[in-house]
Amino acid sequence: MIRSKLTRRGALKAGIGGVAATALAAPAVHGQPRTTLRCGFWDHWVPAGNGALRELCAEWGQRERVDVQVDFITSVGNQLQLTIAAEAQSKSGHDILSFPTWFPAAYADQLVPVDDVMGRLAGKYGAVTPAAEYLAKRDGKWTAIPAVSGTQMKPCLGRIDLLKQHAGLDVQAMWPAEDKAGPGADAWTWDAFLAAAEKCHAAGVPFGLPMGTFSDAVDWLGALFTSFGASMLDADGKATVRNNPKLRAAVDYMVKLSKVLPDDVWAWDDASNNRAIGSGRSALIFNPPSAYAVARRDKMENFDQMWTFPMPSGPEGRFTPYLPYFWGIWDFSRNIGPAKGLLEFLSQRESAEKQTTISAGYDIPPFVSMNDFAVWKNEGPPPGVVFNYPIKAHHNAKTSVAFAPAPPEIAVQAYTQGLNTGLIARIAQGGMSVDDALGWAERELRNFARG
Amino acid sequence: MAPDGSAKAITQPVARGPRGRSPGVSSLERLARRRSSIAFLMTLPLILVIAGLVAYPAAWAIYLSTLNRRMRANIGFDNYLILLESESFRMIIWQSCFFAITAVLLKALIGFWLAHMLHHIPTRGQRKWRGMLLIPWVIPPALSTLGWWWMFDPSYSSINWIINVFGFPSVPWLGQPWWARISVIMVNVWYGAPFFMIMYLAALKSVPEQLYEAASIDGATSWQRLRFITLPMMQNIISITVLFSLIVTFANYDIVRVLTNGGPRDTTHLFATYAFQVGILSGNLPRGAAVSLFMLPILAVAAFFILRGVTRRTKEIA
């Protein structure tokens, strides 16, 4: 018979040892992430831009013990838009997704309201830019959070030397890299802009303003129309084209301006204007700092002569084209709580500044109080080249979204089909009379509101 | 094969019990032995693929096109009526037809001419030329169109640069409506003509040489040989190729998307590009589905007439 050597004392010791070992290992076990949060963010033009989001997500995930999986989805070839449509139809995919300008409204029914997050953020950082509110608020509820990454403005980006030489404008003095306007800033109106455009056209460096259906074209023309008070749709989505003297004034202005633009602007895409200023063929474009960043990276001739400054003002004020991204949470997500937590973290001032700094000032935070990050003062040469890229108090400007204040689901149709640029093209390029072209626009706008 | 279609009947006759049943054979076994069952089982994967990837999406698209913008209510055929009332969309119907018919005709003519040229080259040299001429067709169109876009670029067109060298003014390839339409058709023809060429070359090689020899003895001219031998012998392959190409060309997306994005002034939009713009980019999926389904009746009519001709000729030959 085999006798067991295990004594009662030995069993007790082994038991105590086992409990101790379990207790020691417990924190490590409890430290493992139990939740996986899947995020699909917009793939940034600036390669390092993705790095900021990746680091911030990792930092938050580690702190909150959440496994944050991040995909960067390009908007090239509308890949992001297709992903959104596919996930909405299949009701599966990411928990958090980046939504381009008009998409929160289009998918509002499938997005989790984020009023609680926006309330806390607004309480801390103040007002959100009204254009973001117009795009993301539906029936008084925030459907998505205005994102920092990818959000851009499109003010003037001009050549200091060419504008000084040919148009007599010292834009660096007018709009210095300081919180004040310089001499001549008050006179920076659309009339002054037209005069400068004519002079630069005569000098062989016409303003490179696209007139196709891509967003750069629709955005800048939308801002011009807004500064003339020339809305094509009212807040109910009804066409306001007929008997609209402000729209007529804006159209007449544009017909004059289009005569001094390059002949091929009707076929320009969103990169054509960047190339126009980079190559020195144009003295001015409307663009975020990406055109400057590429010129600097590639050491293009005279990149250090570029300067960002506000849009001209019109009878109704100064408006800057605004093209935001949003972060939304699908209603089929099983991790709504952690998703809200992550988005709140990404919208904090420190996180926003990190995103903006790494993107060389490209990303615009939604809160007006954050328009003072150091990166905009420090970028260069020339130093302060993008200081006036975000809207500052002394600009007396507002953000503009083309076809606002119409309900987004109607406005987006006019936007993507470039109805404002199409209107001008029909007159200036197609030889249609103003009345006929306005009639065409009115019929199209009415159709957008139907169904 | 036995009249009841059973495979077993061919190999060995089975003694049948009362009511025609084979003794000792279960009904499952009998089912498995029937040729129709085996045929059905073998085609089942294909049926499932077609049902899942063709029938279901098509039915879903038709259903989608009857919904309102918010996809909450059924509005019948209102989306189609709204589209037909839009001047822009009526122009797109015309453009799609013009683009597809012109491009297919040009591809067929160029393909036929190239096939003839190749057919008369000695076999050794033919392989080399055949490979080279197929290059446009094997490059992914999104990539090759990007190359064309660089050549047509509004500001830095290399073609314009060459034209300028010879003292001619620049051509607004993508900036003027008609030039843009021509550019889009040119790229489509460049991409698609090799497909016609290779199909027609195969058809040419299958025409019996004796027919040409007999025609030569009868004193037929080269035009008569083409008119009375080559074309009748190739008629079916020409019809099938034209139908296939018509479907693909009507549904073309990438060339217009890369070259013009539908501009200037929507004058190069096709059904597919407009459907994408309305459905995905404008967030109006039901109306986008309605745009894309507009192709269906046009192509169905074309397919009906072309396939009826093919069937008739096949019966005549048989």
What would you say this structure looks like, in words?
The complex is a heterodimer of chains A (451) and B (318). Chain A folds into 2 domains: 35-151 and 324-373, Periplasmic binding protein-like II (D-Maltodextrin-Binding Protein, domain 2), CATH 3.40.190; 153-322 and 379-449, 3-Layer(aba) Sandwich (D-Maltodextrin-Binding Protein, domain 2). Helix content of chain A is 45%, strand content 12%. Chain A contains 19 helices and 14 strands. Chain A has helices spanning 8-30, 47-64, 79-90, 103-106, 115-125, 130-136, 160-167, 171-174, 190-202, 215-227, 245-258, 272-278, 290-297, 336-346, 349-358, 375-378, 408-416, 419-428, 434-449, and strands at residues 35-42, 66-73, 96-99, 137-138, 141-142, 145-146, 152-153, 156-159, 284-286, 306-309, 313-314, 317-323, 326-329, 397-400. In chain A, a hairpin with a 2-residue loop joins strand 4 (137-138) and strand 5. Chain B has 318 residues and is an all-alpha fold. Chain B has helices at residues 8-11, 27-33, 35-64, 78-85, 87-119, 123-138, 141-152, 158-165, 177-205, 209-217, 222-250, 254-259, 271-281, 285-293, 295-317. In chain B, helix 6 (123-138) runs antiparallel to helix 9 (177-205). Chain B is flat and about 90 Å long. In chain B, 31% of the residues are buried. Classes of the chains: A alpha+beta (451), B mainly alpha (318).
Write the layout of secondary structure elements.
The complex is a heterodimer of chains A (451) and B (318).
Chain A: H1 8-30, E1 35-42, H2 47-64, E2 66-73, H3 79-90, E3 96-99, H4 103-106, H5 115-125, H6 130-136, E4 137-138, E5 141-142, E6 145-146, E7 152-153, E8 156-159, H7 160-167, H8 171-174, H9 190-202, H10 215-227, H11 245-258, H12 272-278, E9 284-286, H13 290-297, E10 306-309, E11 313-314, E12 317-323, E13 326-329, H14 336-346, H15 349-358, H16 375-378, E14 397-400, H17 408-416, H18 419-428, H19 434-449
Parallel strand pairs in A: 1-2, 1-3, 12-14
Antiparallel strand pairs in A: 3-13, 4-5, 6-13, 7-12, 8-9, 8-10, 11-12
Helix pairs in contact in A: 2-14, 2-15, 7-9, 11-18, 12-13, 17-19, 18-19
Chain B: H1 8-11, H2 27-33, H3 35-64, H4 78-85, H5 87-119, H6 123-138, H7 141-152, H8 158-165, H9 177-205, H10 209-217, H11 222-250, H12 254-259, H13 271-281, H14 285-293, H15 295-317
Helix pairs in contact in B: 3-14, 5-9, 5-11, 6-9, 9-11, 11-15, 13-14
